[in-house]
Structures are given as structure tokens and as C-alpha cells.
């Protein structure tokens, strides 16, 4: 099963999220972001999910200038519970472009759970 073509979504990041994660990260309440490694031009982390979705994802983001970041998340796990659970695997590849300090009507993303 495939998820289709490209989509554009506007997000607003807080300085706290940039300082902690260096990039936009999953907003799934079943997931925690762990083993965060910030580097001068990127970051890596793991996403561990328990609940309706169980599994593990590897995250990475890199930036070569202050305006564009490229990211990737690869996740493998199961969705559902008990005998109705089914395997899932997905990859999201993203490009983020800085538009300016004012988010306008776009609300800031909440800080996800992390360790």
C-alpha cells in the first residue's frame, strides 16, 4: 500500500522545539522521541511508539543553511491490538523551508514527549 504523492503542510515551530530537536518531529501521542543527537548541521533520533501503534522509527534531519532542512523518518511496527493487529512500515521524506519569524494563523506545534 502506498500513501500517494507529495503534500504541503505549514507548521509553526517554537524556539524550544528547535533547541531540543532541531527539526519538526512526530506529534503522535503514542510516541516518544529518544536518543536525540544534535549536530551543527543536523540531528538524529529514535521514535518509540506504544499504544494503538507499536514500533520503532529512525529519524534524521539535515540542513546546509538556515532556511532549508531535509528530513526522513522510517517506521516499522504494528497497528491495532490483539488478534486484529497488522504490520505497518512507512517512510516519510520531507523538505522544510523557513518562511519567517511570524507564524500568522498557524498555531505552534506542541512539544512532543521525549527522553
How would the global form be characterised?
A: globular
Tell me the fraction of residues in β-strands, as a range. Answer: over 45%
Gyration radius, rounded: 15 Å
Secondary-structure-derived class: mainly beta
The number of helical segments is 1
Order of helices and strands: HEEEEE
Distance between the termini: 32 Å
* Strand ordering within the main sheet: 1-2-3-4-5
Low-confidence stretches: none
The total strand number stands at 5
Reported for the largest beta sheet, the result is: 5 strands, antiparallel
The residue-averaged pLDDT reads 83
Percent range for helical residues? under 10%
Polypeptide structure, described:
The chain is built from 1 helix and 5 strands. The protein has one helix at residues 15-21; strands spanning 31-39, 42-49, 53-63, 68-79, 86-97. The protein has a domain at 15-79 and 89-97. The chain is globular. The chain has a 5-stranded antiparallel sheet with strand order 1-2-3-4-5, with no helix packed on it. The model has no long low-confidence stretch (mean pLDDT 83). By secondary structure, the chain is mainly β. The protein starts with 14 loop residues before the first helix and ends in an 18-residue tail after the last strand.
Summarize the structure.
With 115 residues, this protein is mostly beta strands. The chain is built from one helix and five strands; from the N terminus they run H-E-E-E-E-E.
Amino acid at each position: 500500500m502506498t500513501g500517494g504523492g507529495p503534500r504541503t503542510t505549514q507548521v509553526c515551530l517554537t524556539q524550544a522545539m528547535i533547541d531540543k530537536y532541531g527539526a519538526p518531529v512526530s506529534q503522535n501521542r503514542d510516541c516518544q522521541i529518544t536518543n536525540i543527537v544534535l549536530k551543527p548541521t543536523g540531528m538524529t533520533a529514535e521514535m518509540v511508539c506504544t499504544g494503538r501503534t507499536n514500533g520503532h522509527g529512525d529519524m534524521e534531519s539535515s540542513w546546509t543553511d538556515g532556511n532549508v532542512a531535509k528530513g526522513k523518518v522510517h517506521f516499522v511496527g504494528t497497528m491495532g491490538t490483539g488478534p486484529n493487529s497488522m504490520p505497518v512500515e512507512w517512510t516519510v521524506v520531507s523538505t522544510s523551508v523557513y518562511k519567517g519569524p511570524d507564524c500568522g494563523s498557524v498555531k505552534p506545534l506542541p512539544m512532543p514527549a521525549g527522553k
